[in-house]
Amino acid sequence: MQRVGMNAFAFVLYLSLPGASAYMSRYSCNTTADLFKRQGLTSETFLCAPYVNYTVACDLDDDPALGFNPSCNNTFAVQVYANFERALSVYSCRDYSRIWTCDNCTVAYKRWLCSALFRKCNQDYECPENFTSETLMQDFGSLADADSAGTNARAIPDCVMKTCQDVCYDVVRKCPVHLEFRCPPVKDLREYDIRTCNNLERPSTDNVNALSSASSPACPRC
Ligand SMILES: *[C@@H]1O[C@H](CO)[C@@H](O)[C@H](O)[C@H]1NC(C)=O
Ligand SMILES: *[C@@H]1O[C@H](CO)[C@@H](O)[C@H](O)[C@H]1NC(C)=O
Ligand SMILES: *[C@@H]1O[C@H](CO)[C@@H](O)[C@H](O)[C@H]1NC(C)=O
Ligand SMILES: *[C@@H]1O[C@H](CO)[C@@H](O)[C@H](O)[C@H]1NC(C)=O
Ligand SMILES: *[C@@H]1O[C@H](CO)[C@@H](O)[C@H](O)[C@H]1NC(C)=O
Questions:
Q1: Among 210, 204, 121, which Cα is nearest to 168's?
Q2: Which of 94, 101, 213 has most ligand 5 atoms within 8 Å of its beta carbon, as the pocket-test mutant?
Q3: Is residue 187 part of a domain?
Q4: Is it the case that residue 108 has pLDDT exceeding 50?
Q5: PANTHER family annotated for this entry (predicted)?
Q6: Residue whose CA is at the smallest distance from ligand 5 atom 10
Q7: Is residue 209 part of a domain?
């Protein structure tokens, strides 16, 4: 049981390693309607339905380590989420924090998982419907730029919007420390960002009730 749980965390670590081979090299921007059709989903069976209502950047290739394609994959999302819930059930959800409960942790984790598996296409760029890191290099010429923090911005093509840092740190804040969920250091902006970023149209998961009401704040192009 522990072991199954740990697979979810191996996946977490894997996600924080941009630059892993074949990571984000060939992408396609798909609508959620397209995902529903291809995967036979409904808003009841789509795990990320409350979070993902935007054009999604899907990797076109299998992950060589996993042997299948985890990107935009609802079956995989459901599996990882179930593993997480199993791992969480090992801990006493009563006494790990005076503020947070396992429900709060689960909500934060789900939001993060959805952001990681269903990346948002960055509509601020005239991105082609499908694209590779190489074509983007020619089109925008900016992939190799180092950012002000001195990290390499190559990790994520400009057509894929980075996830808001808070989406990750929300999980660290709200989940039992023993789960050892980690985010990249705040200065590492390869995968996460703080200004223009995907927060899944939810400013924070602090208010669970606000989460279920579908109103999205000003979001010019989504
Ligand atoms: C996204 O669309 C492309 C073609 O436009 C398709 O090959 C791919 O399978 C789609 N991805 C998903 C996850 O539906
Ligand atoms: C968002 O949801 C609405 C209603 O379900 C749907 O009509 C629309 O196509 C969705 N937008 C995207 C970008 O998936
Ligand atoms: C989606 O993930 C499951 C594992 O959860 C895997 O068996 C399946 O092959 C994946 N789908 C694709 C299209 O790779
Ligand atoms: C992009 O789509 C076009 C037509 O849909 C196809 O010919 C081309 O091979 C695709 N490119 C990639 C990189 O998938
Ligand atoms: C934490 O979860 C509980 C149970 O779902 C909820 O009542 C409470 O509002 C949540 N706390 C915050 C600050 O969102």
A1: 204
A2: 101
A3: yes
A4: yes
A5: MID1, ISOFORM A, TRANSMEMBRANE PROTEIN FAM155
A6: 104
A7: no
